[in-house]
Design a protein that fits this description.
The chain has 114 residues and is of the alpha+beta class. It has two helices and five strands, in the order αβββαββ. Strands 1-2-3-4-5 form a five-stranded mixed β-sheet, with helices on both faces. β4 and β5 form a beta hairpin.
């Protein structure tokens, strides 16, 4: 595993811990299909949250959430629909899209980011 991959995994683990502390249950992490990957999927009540985690060691290249542009958002929405269909959950939940930014040791979860 490269340093970049290890940093990304570390950021995802931080985000999962944050969600668990806030009463969410982990449904999936690093879910993959041939069209892409969803980082973290959690649920609290009827709300299923798909969280894109962006981790950076510094702000040299800007805030991590800035890397989640419209194309990325569209891809995440399509993947979430596929995940929901596979789980047979499409009609029984509310779906929310968050972005978790990890910069150094700081974590910021942007709820309803898109």
């Amino acid at each position: 595993m490269s340093n970049k991959q290890a940093l990304g995994r570390w950021g995802e683990e931080r985000a999962v811990r944050w969600y668990k502390r806030h009463g969410y249950r982990l449904l999936d992490i690093n879910w993959r299909c041939r069209h892409g990957e969803l980082d973290v999927i959690v649920q609290r009540g009827a709300v299923v949250v798909v969280c894109e985690v962006k981790t950076r060691s510094s702000l040299s290249f800007g805030y991590p959430a800035e890397a989640v542009g419209l194309d990325k958002q569209r891809r995440i929405r399509r993947l979430a629909a596929q995940w929901l269909a596979e789980q047979e959950r499409s009609g029984s939940v509310q779906l929310r899209f968050d972005v978790a930014e990890v910069v150094g040791r700081d974590l910021r979860v942007i709820e309803s980011a898109f």
